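Re-running Cytochrome P450 4B1-like to confirm reproducibility after the cluster update. Everything else is unchanged from the original entry.
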Amino acid sequence: MVLSWLSIWLPVSFPRLWLWSIALVLALGLLQLTRLLARRQKLLRALDSFPGPPIHWLFGHAKEIKGEGALDKIISWANTYPSAHPLWFGRFIGFLNIYDPDYAKAVYSRGDPKAWDIYGFFIPWIGKGLLVLEGPKWFQHRKLLTPAFHNAVLKSYVGLFAESTQDMLDKWEKKVRVNKCVEIFNDVGFMALDTLMKCIFGKTSRGQTKSDTDYYLAIADLTLLMQERVHAFQYHNDFLYWLTPHGRNFLRACKVAHDHTDKVIRERKAILKGEMLEKTQKKRHLDFLDILLGVKDENKIHMSDMDLRAEVDTFMFEGHDTTTSSISWFLYCMALYPEHQNRCRKEIQEILQGRDTVQWEDLGKMTYLTLCIKESFRLFPAVPQVYRQLSKPVTFADGRSLPEGSLVSLHIYALHRNRTVWTDPEVFDPQRFTPENTSTRHPFAFLPFSAGPRNCIGQQFAMMEMKVVTALCLLHFEFSPDPTQPPIKQTQLILRSKNGIHLNMNKLKMNTRKSSKKS
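Result of re-run:
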């Protein structure tokens, strides 16, 4: 039928092979459209009991949840539709967007896999690492990776955190001599990358090489390109996407990232070939790659090169931009609230007693700094939204339910500003996280690292780095906001500011003594 229709409209001399080719493409396109429409109907039925904001016939809510004001729009919807509402990325991808602790517990206390409609876009970059794996392979990798985050390993990283932070502080000291106002997000990003290069790859040189800079820029490009792809339904089809300039830019950035990781793995394997494991373990610290190269599964088999690269790239993806975002927004909070900044600084000075760096034993004493870090996590979660696909039906506390296969989005930003959970949610109040106040709060009300069995494996690493970096920043500088350049919140995969984060800095005079104790 398709072929006869084409023969009417095309010239008689048109090659018959081309007719068949065009007919095949049209038939496949029609089949795909039929599948998408059937899927849309299934999603509509699943979300039928959840009222929500009006849906554009083509874009869904995609245009309203990108760019400036997107997070304010989400909060407005959350205040209008209690607990949850449908959220559509284009016409064919629909989630139940949840921001209620009971709803979060119902889904995230289970082990449902990540939503492939979103995280599938990550595969060309990070491969099938812990972030996207599911089932037995996920359990296997989680078990193999856990030793990399034990205290004995993390303890040795404190000095590396401090070293990279000091390089950033030296850079800031030079900048403020010229201009007191500094855009911090980019500098914090380079510092976070430098730290990860040391902790993952065992980098020994200080500062950024050209290779580091190229890698950093590739990571930044990949994060932005992935976010744009998620929100642009015309990029959801793989075949069409790779034909676009956007898709080709993504592949180019992937190649830079992969080439860097592959090169380091090859070099490290060559070094280890001539060393005994015992000799390797005598290093000042074991980096992430050392540990991955040494682990074996229950069959005494090492990880494949493909799995190694996937886990290294996953750790880099999850540990770089998230750290950059968290530290930058924390310093912004400190700039806005000088009374809390001064109290944190006083606590740090009392703990360090004139020392110029931070040691492992200091971290547990930073109680008020920890309260402020958690409150900054609440107001500015580095990952504002995470996604799951239900492996079995779920019924929520209010009686509404979702069938197996449904897509769920946990909007952490909206959850953390839910006015039915938090008193004065827009107010910065570190006392929310004292033991007394925490004990009376719903355990799923505060989820900066997600929750349940698939929570962030690196959260202790992240908290340690946050404490070391922010303590040293507050020790060396006083921060205040630049009223002429307030940050414009922009939700990508990571919470960032469209125009950067600009802070006025005042270098503090210090009477410090060099620490003789290694951390």
